[in-house]
Amino acid sequence: MTPITEVEGRRVALSNLEKVLHPATGFTKGELLHYYATTADVLLPHLRDRPVSFLRYPDGPDGQVFFTKNVPPGTPEWVTTAEVPRSEGPARMVLVQDLPSLMWAANLVAEFHTHQWVISHPEVADRMVFDLDPGAPANVVHCCEVALWLRERLAADGIDAYPKTSGSKGLHLLAAVRPTPSDQVTEYAKGLAVEAERTMPRLVVHRMTRSLRPGKVFVDWSQNAARKTTATPYTLRARSTPTVSAPVTWEEVEACRDAGQLTFLATDIAPRVQDYGDVLAPLLDAGRASPLP
Question: Which site from 61, 75, 271, 273 is most exposed, i.e. has the minimal number of CB atoms within 10 Å?
Fold first, then answer.
C-alpha cells in the first residue's frame, strides 16, 4: 500500500521510499523526498509561477529517463496548472507553488526545469541565463574563468550575474532583467557569447557544433529562447550520485582550482544554506532587475 502523508492539509502519496535512485552512494527515494522537504524554503521561490518541465528518472539514472512537459496523468486537482503557449499549440503544464505540490512532484522522481519567464507574462523574460558547458579535457575550472569574464562584461552593461553549478559538468550564470521579450534577451546573450569567443578563442566556443567543443567551454546562450528551460536552482540531477544544481558564491568561483571544489551533493545543501542563505535571492527582487542595453 502506498503511504499517504499529510502536507499542509493536503494528502500526498509517497511511494517506494527504500528504492535506490542514485546508485553510487545508495541514495534512496526517501532521502530524495527529505532533501526536497528540507530545501523547500529556498527552492520554492525559484519554482513559483514558472511552468515546470520534469526530467524523470523513476528507476535511477541507469533506467528510463524522459521529459514530461504536459500535466502528468493522476495529478491531484489541488496542484496548480496553467496553459502555456507552444509552437504546436497551447499545452497545460504544472506550476509548483507550495510545499504539497513540491512533495507530490518530488515523488515523481524528477529534475525540475523552468523557463526564464513567469506564467503571467509568457515569453517575456525576467531572467537571463548562460549555460557554460565544458568539452573534455576542459572542466568546471575553465568554466570559472569564462564566468569571471562574463561577470565583468555584464557588469559593464549594468547587469549583476549570479553563479550556480549545473549539477553536471559546468556552471550556469543567471541575471535578473527587466521584463523583455525572450527573443531580445536571446539576441543579447548570443552577442556576449560571440564576444567571449572573440576575446578568448582558445577557450570559448559559442556554437553547439560538437566538433568545435573539445577542450573549450561552450557558452550556451540559446536557453534564453522562450520555449527552452534550464535546471532550476537546487534541483537534484539524474546522476549516479545525488548532485545538485547548487548556487555558489563568486569567491568560490574565483578560488576554484579543481572540479571537485564545485561538486555538491544533496547532503551538502542544508549546511550551505545555513552558512550563506540563498545566494540567488537577488534574482527574486524585482527592484534589482536590470534593463538590457
Answer: 271
Query: What pLDDT shows up at residue 88?
Result: 81
Domains of the chain by start residue, with CATH: 4-121 (3.90.920.10), 124-227+243-263 (3.30.70.3300)
In 3D space, the residue among 268, 193, 200 whose CA is nearest the CA of residue 224 turns out to be 193
Q: Which three cell numbers stand for residue 243?
A: 548532485
Residue 267 has pLDDT above 80, yes or no: yes
Contact 114, 230 (CB under 8 A): yes
* Enclosing H/E stretch for 221: none
Spatial CB neighbours of 92, under 8 Å, sequence gap ≥ 6:
70, 71, 81, 82, 83, 84
Residues 85, 69: contact at Cβ < 8 Å? no
In the block, residue with C-alpha cell 559546468: 170
Please check whether residue 121 is in contact with residue 182, taking contact to mean a CB–CB distance below 8 angstroms: no
The mean pLDDT value for 123-147 works out to 97
Residues across the chain: 293
Question: What is the H or E stretch that residue 193 is in?
Answer: helix 182-199
pTM for the full model?
0.96
- Nearest Cα residue to 79 out of 93, 66, 59: 93
Q: What is the mean pLDDT of residues 16-43?
A: 97
